[in-house]
Amino acid sequence: MTRYTNFPLILILVVSLTLSQFSFYSIADSPTPKVHFIDDLPNLNPVVKINCVVGGGTTMVHKYEEYSFDAGITTRLYACYAIWNDSTTRITAYDPFKVDKGQPIVHWSIRDTGFWKSFDNRNWNFYEKWFPN
User: Fold this and answer.
1) pTM for this entry
2) Could you tell me the CA-to-CA distances from 33 to 10, 40, 41, 59, 112 in Å, in that order?
C-alpha cells in the first residue's frame, strides 16, 4: 500500500489556488465617488439653482461656490437639473455604466456656454449646452 506523504502539501496548494480565484475586496472598502459642481459663470449673472435627485430640494450655487455630493450607490444614475436665467438643463451628473465608472471624482464647471466635465479638475470637456425653458 502506497502512502501519500505529500498529501498535506498538495491539499494546501489546492486550497490556496482555489482561494486566490476569489477577491476579498468589497465595494464597501472603496470610497464612494464624489460629484462636484462649481459656478464659473460671469460675475454679474444671477445664481444657478441645482436640483439633484440625491439631496432633494434646490441648492443655490453662487459665484465660485461649490456644491458636491457623494454618489453612494455606484450602480445608479444621478440626474441633476440646473436653472439659470431663462434656461434649464438636465444632465446625468454621475453615470456608473459609462465613462464615470471607476472615477473617484467627477467635476462639473457651469459656464455661460454650458456644462463642462473633468475627472482631474484640469482637463475639461464640453458636455451639454443650456436649453431654453
Assistant:
1) 0.70
2) 43, 22, 25, 20, 26
